[in-house]
Specification:
This protein is an alpha/beta fold. 33% of the residues lie in helices and 14% in strands. It has helices at 17-20, 45-48, 72-87, 106-125, 134-137, 157-162, and strands at 5-9, 28-32, 57-61, 92-96, 129-131. Strand 1, helix 1 and strand 2 (28-32) form a beta-alpha-beta unit. Helix 3 packs parallel to helix 4. Residues 33-152 form the SGNH hydrolase-type esterase domain. InterPro entries: SGNH_hydro. Pfam families: Lipase_GDSL_2.
């Protein structure tokens, strides 16, 4: 039997189920939470990873909707809470770094880079895997829809999900 895989995140992951679930729909699930912020995952983890006792691989892509909405320390604390919650439910978690935003100001891009650097440090410290995508998507604005957040074509999603963990 294959190990269950759960991909959860904000609207950036919309449509990845056609890629993720192709091989084995029975053991793979994608939960797209449009507009989700990091703190929103706390209330969803138990429902998404039910039943207790199952040890799924969990891939998390969230954080874009948190940028520019508060203090860095508050956001870091939310990520810490999410990692603690996930650790209590599974042994294998992979976090996906926040993508660059094409239309963002230099200040916002700097905030994203700074958060990604901290996330990379924190997740490694906590022995979680991290996938970084900055180099894959930086200056590749052609990959994004005009809204500057979502990917244009699902054919690029494999790059997002299968990038070698950093």
């Amino acid at each position: 039997m294959n190990r269950k895989v759960v991909v959860v995140g904000d609207s950036v992951i919309r449509g990845v189920d056609s890629y993720v679930c192709t091989r084995d729909r029975g053991s793979r699930m994608v939960s797209c939470l449009p507009g989700a912020q990091v703190g929103d995952l706390l209330n969803r983890v138990d429902r998404l990873l039910a039943p207790p006792g199952v040890d799924p691989v969990v891939v998390v892509h969230v954080g874009t909707n948190d940028i520019g909405k508060g203090r860095k320390a508050v956001l870091q604390d939310k990520f810490i809470e999410v990692t603690d919650k996930l650790r209590s439910r599974t042994s294998m978690v992979v976090f996906s770094g926040i993508l660059p935003v094409p239309c963002a100001s230099q200040a916002k891009l700097a905030e994203i880079r700074g958060l990604n650097a901290w996330l990379k440090w924190w997740f490694r410290k906590e022995e979680f895997s991290v996938m970084g995508h900055w180099k894959t998507f930086w200056n590749r604005w052609d990959l994004f829809k005009p809204d500057g957040l979502h990917l244009k074509q699902l054919s690029h999603v494999p790059n997002l999900l299968t990038k070698t963990p950093e």
